[in-house]
Known about the structure:
- The structure is a single chain.
- This protein is an all-alpha fold.
- It contains five helices and no strands.
- The protein starts with a helix and ends with a helix.
- The mean pLDDT is 88.
Amino acid sequence: MWEAIRGWFDPRELRSVGSRPDYRFSLANERTFLAWLRTGLALIAGGLAAAQFLPRLPLAHLREVIAVALLLLGATVAVRAVDHWARTERAIRLDEELPASRFPAVLALVVALGALLLVVAVLVRGLG
């Protein structure tokens, strides 16, 4: 694990494997990384907004749970983004199949579940 993390910060190591790819593929990989990073930042901003602006919800500390969940999810997305970028760049340089990932599906399910829980909270507050 530490070897992978060290590789994120050492571009010379990444460039030492395989052959130089067509720059368009590396730039596309970088754009995908930046899109994931924006997603992580949006989740973090949502967590901060929940902590600051959500009114007290019917369940004790629900607002704080929502905020912390969004902040942790944003941090996870950011870390996952850099790991996926490095693994994809390595695969491109080695002319291998791109790494498969379940993370987008898991993230979508977690966000959808969170939205459903918020709908329930809003309905409980509105009807109660």
